[in-house]
Amino acid sequence: MSNQPGPLRVLIADDHAPTRHDVRRALDADGRFEVCAEVADAAEAVRAAVDTCPDVCLLDVRMPGSGVAAAWEIGARLPQAKIVMLTVSEEDADLFAALRAGADGYLLKTMNLRRLGEALEGVWHGEAAMPRALVARVLGQFHGREPRWRSLAGDGVTQRRLTSREWEVLELLAQGCSTAKIADRLVLSASAVRAHITAIVRKLEVADREGAIRLFRQRKGH
Fold first, then answer.
1. What is the pTM of this model?
2. Based on CB atoms within 10 Å of each CB, which residue in 19, 49, 119, 137 is the most buried?
3. What does the alpha-carbon distance between residue 121 and residue 5 come to, in Å, rounded to a whole number?
4. Could you give the CA distance from residue 49 to residue 177 in angstroms, rounded to a whole number?
5. Quick one: DSSP state of residue 139?
6. Domain 8-142 carries which CATH code?
7. How confident is the model at residue 220 (pLDDT cuts 50, 70, 90)?
8. Residue 155 pLDDT exceeds 50
9. b/e sequence 125-155, b meaning 16+ C-beta within 10 Å
10. pLDDT tens for each residue of 40-87
11. So where are the chain's domains?
12. Which architecture characterizes domain 148-220 according to CATH?
């Protein structure tokens, strides 16, 4: 990766047009980057990423369709691409969801955009891009205990863990979402969602999706 020829190609996905303009201007001024696509929602981000094969995808967490969902899908389809979230959100839920989705960086829109180039260059070379305060939260979350989102195992039910994607599908099922709604929220096909549900049912050793939902709610204390 360190011998990347030419400028790094960047996809910008944000529903706020002025933000897209400011980010593009900062990257154009830097000279090490070429903006290959600008889009306004998660579905467009996935399509543009597949079409243009960017080196770095810069995604807004809370754009329509969810930047986290776009990160999951782009990571699955383009594993070589680096994914960096650019957001106003400092909430733990957004931060950890992005990391579970495979984000290589989590930057705040309050940053000095003149430093954005250095951050993206660092990500391309294998570094993590994240404000120090958020790094401390990540360490606090994972020191000395297993992340809750990794497993529903316990009480002899099963020792097989769900993947992070399966966990997201199960959470949405428990919220009453249909297969079609889950597909829309996670930017997946309906058949992919059904495949995840089948895997969840098998791993949790229950009869059907309703059994998986009941087990999920018991473990969550609902």
1. 0.65
2. 49
3. 13
4. 27
5. H
6. 3.40.50.2300
7. low
8. no
9. eeeebbeeebeeebeeeeeeeeeeeebbbee
10. 999 999 999 999 999 999 999 999 999 999 999 999 999 999 999 999
11. 8-142, 148-220
12. Orthogonal Bundle (1.10)
